[in-house]
Amino acid sequence: MTAQDCLQILREVKDAAFATVDENGYPQVRIIDVMLVEDGTIYFCTARGKDFYQQLARTGRAAVTALNKDYQMVRFSGKVKRLTDQKKWIDRIFEENPSMKEVYPQDSRYILEPFCFEEGQVEFFDLGKSPIYRENFTLGDVKKEQKGYEITDECIGCGTCMEGCPQRCIEEGTPFSIRQENCLHCGLCAENCPVQAIRKRGR
Fold it and tell me: What is the pTM of this model?
């Protein structure tokens, strides 16, 4: 699995959930088509009169997620930019997505503005496997986020975390360790640890 594979999953699902934040700080989500995948990013569009457009223009950030029929989830969050050559990109999007011609016939298409992600964090999460499998990637000049949990040297080796783990992804050792690629990030191990030896990563 690569970051490009993740973007291709978004394109294949096509109808994905895009999230932004409105002017009051409230989360907003809607279904938007992933129109193109190329040059290591995804392309989408929206009309200038829509709240989605205003939120993208104001914050320059968005998140998108989709789940395919194989229970593979991809989440991409980061910076977005409006493309300056509007007509070129809208025409290209309509070529690749001909059904758009029925929604915005003829020149009405140019009410749409094209966007792409500049950079961000990409997460792949496969619920179709047992144990589950996850992997993180970055696109652009961003540092990879450390998510999930880790077991510190305060571990006393009691095995409470291993016994309770729903994915059985904790292994014995000094200290015990978590297989990050199989972890749900549920936090049950941290809640159950009698000596608080488990903490969130990246903190």
Answer: 0.90
